[in-house]
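__Record contents__

***
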Amino acid sequence: MAGTYDLPISRARVHLPEGETSAALALLEAWRAHVEAKGWADERLKVMIVQAVALQAHGDRDQAVPVLDDALALAQPGAFVRSFVDEGTPIADLLALAAAQARMAGYAAKLLAVFEVDKPKSHNESAQPLTEPLTHRELEVLRLITQGLSNHEIGEWLFLAVDTVKGHNRKMFGKLQVQRRTEAVGRARELGLA
């Protein structure tokens, strides 16, 4: 299907699992030049993210990190998250490198926090030692609280209104039998939820 239409990013994504990184990189390089000439910033961001993943798969991490760094600089003003998260583990690995060495380290670290929220925990969420277990969303909010994010930041990362985040906080605090965020963090760690 990707070959039927002119979908260079999709075609490149097909080449990557097949180990055809050179073909993927050639498609991405040509498409990036095209979208840059057209001034399509959103499409440019997408191609740069996939290009960074392809460079890493090709074994060229020294080029992958600067491409990702440029993508982070392009994405930060719009607080793009999903464009990175959709690429999964390969981009998470590169974000960890970028967080350690690149000029956009802070933004890379915030994106990594989203991967931590999405990562399955080793404990069984249904076996929580609470009278009423926390919902999946409440656990996501709790994990972001333990990472020090404000209600506003949590809302941005989870695409929720601040009032919705506060509602999750109230329900979660009741279930944890706590009054404040710091108490919730302590109780979550005590129960192995964060």
User: Anything to note?
Assistant: Residues 52 and 64 are 4 Å apart (CA to CA).
